[in-house]
Design a protein that fits this description.
With 82 residues, this protein is mainly α. Helices cover 71% and strands 0% of the residues. It has one domain. Helix 1 packs antiparallel against helix 3.
Length: 82
C-alpha cells in the first residue's frame, strides 16, 4: 500500500501547484491587494465571461478533488490502510 500512498501524495502536490496557478489567474474584483500594487490598471484587459466561468469551474473541481484526496489520505492513515 505504500505505492498508493506515494502516488496520492504526488497527486496532492501536483494539484496544489495547479490550484495555486488557477487561483492566481483569476481577475481581481477590485478593492483588494491587487489594486494596491497596480492590478487595478488592467481591469479593462480582462478575460471574457466564458473564460472566467470556465476558470471558476476548473478551480472548484480541482479544489474539491484536492480536498477529497487529503481526506482519503487522512482516513487511510488513521485506520492503518497505508
Amino acid at each position: 500500500m505504500t505505492a498508493v500512498k506515494i502516488t496520492l501524495e504526488i497527486v496532492v502536490v501536483l494539484l496544489s501547484c495547479l490550484l495555486t496557478l488557477l487561483i492566481l489567474m483569476h481577475k481581481g474584483k477590485g478593492g483588494g491587494l491587487s489594486d494596491m500594487f497596480g492590478g487595478g490598471l488592467t481591469q479593462n484587459a480582462g478575460t471574457s465571461g466564458v473564460a472566467e466561468k470556465n476558470l471558476n469551474r476548473w478551480t472548484v473541481i480541482i479544489a474539491l478533488l484536492w480536498v477529497a484526496i487529503i481526506i482519503a489520505l487522512g482516513l487511510m492513515s488513521k485506520f492503518g490502510l497505508i
